[in-house]
Amino acid sequence: MLNPTSEDYVLDPTCGSGGFLLETLLQVWNDTDAGFAGQGNLARIKSDFAAQNVYGIEIHPTLARICKISLLLHHDGHTNIEADKSCLSPNLSKPKLQKDRQFDLIVGNPPFGTKVADGDEDQLDGASLDDYVLGRGKHSIQSEQIILEKSVSWLKPGGRLGMVLPDGVLNNSGSQSNCPALREWLFKSGRILSVISLPDFAFRRSGATNKTSILIFEKFSDLESARLNNRLEACEGDIAAALMDSGLDYNIFFGEASHIGYTPSGRPDPRNDLYVADENGYLSNDQTGSILGEWNVWEENGAVSDPRCVVERASSVWRSHSSHRVDPKYHVYVAHKGDYVPQGWSSAPMMNLVKRMRRNVDFGEEPMKEYKVLTLSQTGVARLREPGVGNNPPEWRGMYFYDSSSDWFEVRTSDIVYSGIDLWKGVVCFVTEEFDHALVTQEYPILRVKDPNVIDPEFLSILLRSRRFQKAFRAINTGHSNRRRTQSSDFGKVLVYYPPIEKQKEIALKVRNARENIAKAYIGVSDIENELDAILHADDEWDETTES
User: What pairing do the DSSP bridges indicate for beta strands 81-83 and 54-58?
Assistant: First the structure.
């Protein structure tokens, strides 16, 4: 997608041990071998590219040394590594790094999960957050955001960027996260050519558990920037309208990869959704069946047939969501959510079937009254939180909730309760009489079916735990850590498929009976174990630390 050439000046602003630079180097050399085969200057072309065109910055001295050695072993390029400096420093030593608009191609995987604070000498080295559009007026900013802005400033007009970013940058909706502002800045700065979603385990081998995606970006030319800015003023800041009116609207290619050549445990996996490699590890000429192959086909004839991929106009992407999210899992889901409805089933948006309940309790009236507190297991089974365990008080009395920093709400029989953080894992339950009047925090939204003659609440809770709906909830959640949130507005737009009410009740009854049988089986096993203990006189005192 980036297609580096021997003429490009390449930079990794957070190069670490040099993996991205080395792969770029080897890819260019491979293409050079193919394009200049038999020419006498082949070696010089390759050597010049390594020594003159490849740059890197690394703040950690040890990693910088490793990077230099790695590039040295591949015929130079090591002299262009800026060591012991942050890419945000205004005091870099290499002339090409001291000015903006110097590079044709920028690649990398910036560190994320940490903040750069104004006045941080290690990171900013005398610079200020006010020097950046995204940092203006802020006391701190997420590291990946400010590094991305700095990287784009280094790009020549028309230059390309390929960067691995946490999904929160692409989908977080809160203004406090600064992510919507970042996406607005991206749309104004150039073309989001492609975003490829990586699986959760992509970087687990290195200890990272964040959900990430690859951003492919092209910076606007000066003329294009001027045209867009002129139309933005005329369109009162409406980016979608400005893109269309200026003739700068473009297509964004989204892809969602589930397999990337290795398993979650790090073992080799023959399946790779991203690309097809040849026997030497380079990109194969035939990319059939890969997301890269679909990209190539789309570039040639504008067609996209792979269900893992979708192409949308930038103006449509901007308007498709109030926070202008650009994460592939969301856009691929939206494009395909209505593709299949089982025969005889109906469909409706969630908001048409359920309503959010907020039954506040006045704990001040009866501070000594005892309450039950509901929580959910990862399998969607409701249970009561036991008082006196962990941080829980000895008793769930009203006075505890009165002084609580959280809001508490009451559930009723036949409600549906789900976890706002773990819904994508199937954490949703149907409230039975056992939990009537129990309490939950706002982290557990409460739903009530509008018309039980249309959809049975118990069936709906079962349906929402199915793999299809877990995929839907995964698509709409935000954030990149293991604690990803489901926004109520997005939840309400999820399309629900349901059979006639008689079939719903039949399915609900089967599941209820199966769960009762499971519970009886557990009790039966426990009874047998107790009988065996009695026969063996296991009631005698027993010290588990005693060696046998």
Answer: parallel
